[in-house]
Every structure is written in C-alpha cells, then in structure tokens.
Specification:
Layout lengths: L1 H46 L1 E5 L13 E6 L24 E5 L7 E8 L4 E5 L2 E4 L2 E2 L19 E2 L13 H6 L4 E2 L2 E3 L4 E5 L9 H4 L2 E2 L3 E11 L13 H13 L1 H4 L7 E2 L2
Length: 268
C-alpha cells in the first residue's frame, strides 16, 4: 500500500512541474506579445500614422468640429534625410492640408491648408488671395457673415497705418514687416504660409506667422469617426469634470451624435 502511494506521488510531481512550466511559458508569451504590440504602436504613431481630432471651426466646411482624423506621417519629404531617396515621400504642395505643431504652444497641434510655399509672394485683397501676382482659385474657402469684423479677414498684409489686431501674436507683429515687400509678404525658405478654409474664423498664419518645415507632422487623409460636438467640448479652459461629463454624455448618445455620413470620408 505504501509503495503504491509513493508511486502515485512520483507520477503526479512531474505533471505539476510541467503545468508550472506551461504557466510560466504562457505568461512570458503574453508579456512578449504585449511588448511587441507597444513597440509597434509607438513606431506607428511616431513614423506612419497618428490620430487627431478637430476642436475648432477654422476648417469648416472641409473639416467639422468633432471630426476624428488619421494623419499620414509617411508622406512629405524635403527635410534632406537620406531615406527620402528610397521611400515614397513627396514635396509639400500648395493646397495640402497639414497637421503641424503650433509655434507658440508646446504639444498643441493645428490643422490648416498650405497656401504659400517658400519663395512665394502673397497678398489678400478684398478676401481674394493672390500668389505671385495671380488670383488663387480656392473653391474650398467659406466665409461666415456672423463672424466679428477683423480687417485681416479682408486684406493682408496690413498697411503700415493699420492698427494691428489684438489677436495677432506680438512676436509676429514685430517680425511681419521684415517679410513685407510693398503690399505683399514673401515666404522665406523652409517655411510655409497656412490658412484655414473658414477664413473669417481661422487663427492662422496671418496672426502668428509661418509654419516651419520641421513642425509639420503629416497630412490628414481620412475621417475615421465624427461626433456632433462644439468648440467648448475641447476647450483647454474647461474643467476635468466637465470634460469627463462630456465623454459620458457622448457615450450615452453615441448612435445619435455620430455623423455617420462622414465616416471614412477622405480629406481633401
């Protein structure tokens, strides 16, 4: 009887050891998979694609408040990197919609349309944009008659006699004249002049200056989700609790607040 008990114990011991090893293997595989996933996600958001949401009306009616976009970070060349010669990059073009870092606030991203390229001479006359002396066709531009009056919505650069509006960054107001030639402004090398499609409600290069090439992150290419929202929902001045309440409210009314017709719409 004792011998049979000892034999059963000897038989069970290897089985328990094997189960323990299997558990360890499973855990290590999960950790390895998680690590690979995190690395791929970080690589993807750093070099290939990134998510972004529209918090203001500056790009209406091309992009609406609450549009959630995917930004292609693997498209624009021109930085001089060696890999641009072997990868499918292209130069920035006039009319490209870009995602870039706002020059006067860390980590804040803007989405605007490229209007002026390096070397361009541009001016805005009675809401008509001129590039190098020729009127620019802009079918994407909208005007909001309810917007507060601002002379920069009608003419730019402002004449020397014009009072600079309070909305203009002081640094840009000081530098603006360095780039003005007559009634035009000249875009310097390595920089771009960007504007919103909703010209009367766009805080753009008229107010804070040029976009550095290094600040451009990529081009939005698709709306993967769109929710009926207002600027206040994304305001930096809102409290944590109000933002949290907004998230729960959106989730509670997700089907009705989703703009289904904008889902997977490409961005132009």
């Amino acid at each position: 009887m004792l011998e049979e008990t000892v034999t059963e114990v000897e038989q069970q011991a290897p089985e328990k050891t094997q189960e323990h090893r299997d558990d360890q293997t499973t855990i290590s595989e999960y950790l390895e998979s998680l690590l690979v996933t995190v690395i791929l996600a970080l690589f993807g958001t750093s070099f290939i694609v990134q998510a972004f949401k529209i918090p203001s009306a500056s790009m209406e009616g091309t992009l609406l408040i609450g549009d959630h976009l995917l930004v292609n970070k693997f498209i624009f060349g021109g930085t001089g990197a060696w890999y641009e010669k072997i990868l499918p990059y292209r130069q920035l073009q006039r009319g490209d919609i870009i995602d870039f870092k706002y020059p006067y606030a860390d980590h804040q991203h803007f989405v605007k349309r490229v209007i002026g390229l390096p070397g361009d001479r541009l001016k805005l006359v009675d809401q008509q944009m001129f590039i190098n002396g020729r009127a620019l066709a802009e079918p994407y531009v909208v005007h909001d008659s309810s917007a507060p009056y601002d002379p920069l919505n009608y003419n730019f650069p402002p004449p020397n006699s014009q009072l600079i509006t309070s909305a203009m960054q002081p640094e840009w107001a000081h530098e603006l004249r360095k780039f003005t030639r007559g009634d035009e402004i000249v875009v310097p090398a390595g920089r771009y002049f960007a504007m919103g499609d909703n010209r009367d409600r766009s805080l753009d290069s008229r107010y804070w200056g040029f976009v550095d090439r290094d600040a451009i992150m990529g081009r939005p290419f698709v709306i993967y989700w769109s929710v009926d929202a207002k600027s206040a929902d994304y305001s930096a001045d809102s409290t944590f609790w109000s933002r949290l309440s907004g998230v729960f409210n959106t989730l509670a009314h997700l089907p009705s607040r989703t703009r289904w017709s904008r889902m997977l719409r490409t961005v132009h």
